[in-house]
Every structure is written in structure tokens, then in C-alpha cells.
Design a protein that fits this description.
By secondary structure, the protein is an alpha/beta fold. The chain is about 30% helix and about 20% strand. The chain folds into two domains: about 80 residues, no CATH class; about 240 residues, TIM Barrel (Alpha-Beta Barrel), CATH 3.20.20. It is globular and about 70 Å long.
């Protein structure tokens, strides 16, 4: 059998997004029938079945996994391993302090001008580095309109809120009618400038991005799509078509890549990813230091690794393809941009800078 499992072999109708969710692999027995698992993976799946972040992988995304190689960059993102049971210093159940910053049920505010609306706890694929592993997949599903009402009332009553990020879980795992209804309700709030949909659907089940979906959401523009490609292997024709469909319908598409050990912690891999995204009219927005979620130490990199990668990419990539490297500080205190230090020395009116080629150049301030 090919290392790349054909999607059609794994689902009754690979073009139907409902089928992708219905036929998602959620048990050890199902996964064993598709991949040659290691002992560490079997132990990880057993743990996921019993506690913590559940297992769920769409047939489409499972088809991107190498059948025999556990180091496959897609497989490392979606197949549990025993190391998820380990804790290392700095691990937190809620690394971004979202519980502490909840201002209404299902609504988190960590910045003065924007809020995070948690509309569902479901995703099509449960990524093993998930920031919200404490809550996603806990069985609640989509939050009802009545239960979201206090959150939207809070937004209505606070004119400083200009941006609403609809997340979860993955909002595109909900029905089109429900997503459109939420966007329509937000759009009726006069002081909200932008709506953002935080979704991994273009990556994990791109057939979700139907003409019906974009036509239902387009009346509520401006809506920005914040998606989440981590590796060039995820840039399939189907995924690129999903991005194209959003872009053609007027949705700006931004990508937030998480830096992951053994997945994309290499400048050449990220260069290929960012170039591919730009070709698809997707703007590389953030390169995120992985959040210190409990049980993800095996996937996280040192801060210095990301800085070194960004330095290697500076000058190799156009500015539109080069994301900002950020660390979302533990406790929910906000994102901090990180960058290589290009300042060699400073004197009054004179600064010596180092270029990406290593040349030192003096910049003189005007008198």
C-alpha cells in the first residue's frame, strides 16, 4: 500500500464535508487499520481514548499521513503519543489565561479592542498541540444561540470592541446556517469593524469550504479567515482550492503557523510553506512559538530556535511571505514579537546595523 493513503479509500464520499466528520477516525482499532503504529503511538491513543484531548482525524487529513513513518510531519500533528502524559516545567492547562480573562460565558477578552468568541468545542481534527486541549471535544458541541446571547450582549455594550474572533473548537465544524447566524448577529453591532473566523478547515477538511458557505458568509463582510497551515505537505490541490474560493469571494486569508519540533523547525521547510501560501494568496501572518500546553513538551522548541529560523529567512523571502515571530505569553498577558538583533552598536545620531548578508552599515540620524 502506498505511504500516502488515497482519501477516496477512507471515506464513502470524500467530497462531502459531513462525511469527513462522520467518518473521522476516533479509535485505536480504526487507526491501526490505516497506519502502522509504534508502541508510543498506541499508548498515546489509549490515553486519548480514556482522558484528555480525544482522537479525531478526518479521512482526508489521515490520507496525508505516511503509513509507516511516525516522523511524518502530518502524523506528528494528529496522532497521539505516550509523551502527552508527561509534564515538563512551564506546562499549563490554560497557557493563555483564557479562563481568567472570560468576561462573559464563552467570551474571552485579553486586549482592549478585540474578543474571542468560543462558539463550539468541536474540531474535525484534534491537533495534539492544541492550546485549548482543556476544553475541546468535551462533548458539548456547538453553543446554542441562547447560550451565546450574553456574550454578544457584552460585545454590544462595549464600544471599545472593534474585532470579534469566532473560534472554538473550529467554527467551520458547525453548520453553515449556524455560522452565518453568528456572523449576522455580530455584524448588527455598529462598532464591530471586523469578524475573524479562526479555522483549520482549509487544512484538515478543505471540502468544507463550499460555494454555499462563502455565499452565506459574504453578506457579513468584512470577514477575515485565520487559518493554520504548518507544513508544505498540507498544501494539497484541495487545500489550495479552499483558499482560492475564500480569496475569490473577498475573504482575506491569513495564516498562523505554529513552530513544532520535528514538523517545521527548519528554515527550508518554512520557506517552502510560506512561498506556497503566498502563491495561494494566503498571507503568512504569525510564526507562533508553541504554547506551553500541558503534555506538549515533546513538540515545543526553544525560543532561540524560532529567532534563528527567522534570521535565516530574512532576505531570502519577500516581506509579504515573512511572518512575524511571536510568543503568546503565559497567563494571557499578550503576544510579544521576537526578532533577531540587527543593531550592532548605538551612539548619539549614529546606529550601526547588520544586514541579512552580514554587512555592517552605519545609519546617521538627521541633525
Amino acid at each position: 500500500m502506498s505511504a500516502l493513503v488515497p482519501t477516496a479509500a477512507l471515506t464513502r464520499d470524500p467530497h462531502d464535508w459531513h462525511s469527513q466528520i462522520r467518518d473521522a477516525v476516533t479509535t485505536l482499532a480504526e487507526l491501526e487499520s490505516k497506519l502502522e503504529l509504534t508502541d508510543a503511538e498506541r499508548a498515546g491513543v489509549r490515553r486519548a481514548e480514556a482522558e484528555g484531548l480525544p482522537l479525531s482525524i478526518t479521512p482526508y487529513y489521515l490520507g496525508l499521513c505516511d503509513r509507516v513513518d511516525p516522523s511524518c510531519p502530518v502524523r506528528r500533528q494528529c496522532v497521539p503519543v505516550a509523551a502527552e502524559g508527561d509534564e515538563v516545567p512551564g506546562d499549563l492547562a490554560d497557557p493563555l489565561g483564557e479562563v481568567a480573562h472570560e468576561v462573559a460565558p464563552h467570551l474571552v477578552q485579553r486586549y482592549p479592542d478585540r474578543v474571542l468568541l468560543l462558539a463550539t468545542d468541536r474540531c474535525a481534527v484534534y491537533c495534539r498541540f492544541c492550546t485549548r486541549s482543556r476544553m475541546v471535544g468535551d462533548g458539548g458541541g456547538a453553543v446554542s444561540d441562547d447560550r451565546l446571547a450574553p456574550a454578544l450582549e457584552y460585545v454590544s455594550n462595549h464600544a471599545n470592541i472593534r474585532d470579534v474572533i469566532v473560534s472554538g473548537g473550529d467554527p467551520l465544524a458547525m453548520s453553515t446556517d449556524r455560522i452565518a447566524r453568528i456572523c449576522e448577529r455580530i455584524r448588527r453591532i455598529p462598532h464591530v469593524d471586523t469578524i475573524r473566523l479562526a479555522t483549520r478547515a482549509p487544512v484538515t477538511f478543505p471540502m468544507r469550504v463550499t460555494r454555499e458557505l462563502v455565499e452565506a458568509l459574504r453578506p457579513h463582510h468584512p470577514i477575515w479567515v485565520m487559518t493554520h497551515f504548518n507544513h508544505p505537505k498540507e498544501l494539497t490541490p484541495q487545500a489550495l482550492e479552499a483558499c482560492r474560493r475564500f480569496a475569490d469571494a473577498g475573504f482575506p486569508v491569513m495564516n498562523q503557523t505554529v513552530l513544532l519540533r520535528g514538523v517545521n523547525d527548519d528554515a527550508s521547510v518554512l520557506e517552502a510553506l510560506f512561498r506556497g501560501l503566498v502563491r495561494a494568496r494566503v498571507r503568512p501572518y504569525y510564526l507562533l512559538q508553541a504554547d506551553p500546553v500541558r503534555g506538549t513538551g515533546h513538540l515545543r522548541t526553544p525560543l532561540a530556535k524560532g529567532v534563528a529560523i527567522l534570521a535565516a529567512l530574512q532576505g531570502r523571502l519577500s516581506g509579504i511571505a515573512l511572518p512575524k515571530l511571536v510568543c503568546d505569553t503565559p497567563g494571557g498577558l499578550g503576544k510579544v514579537p521576537l526578532s533577531p538583533d540587527y543593531v550592532v552598536s548605538r551612539q548619539p545620531g549614529r546606529t550601526v546595523l547588520r544586514t541579512f548578508r552580514g554587512d555592517e552599515v552605519a545609519y546617521l540620524d538627521p541633525p
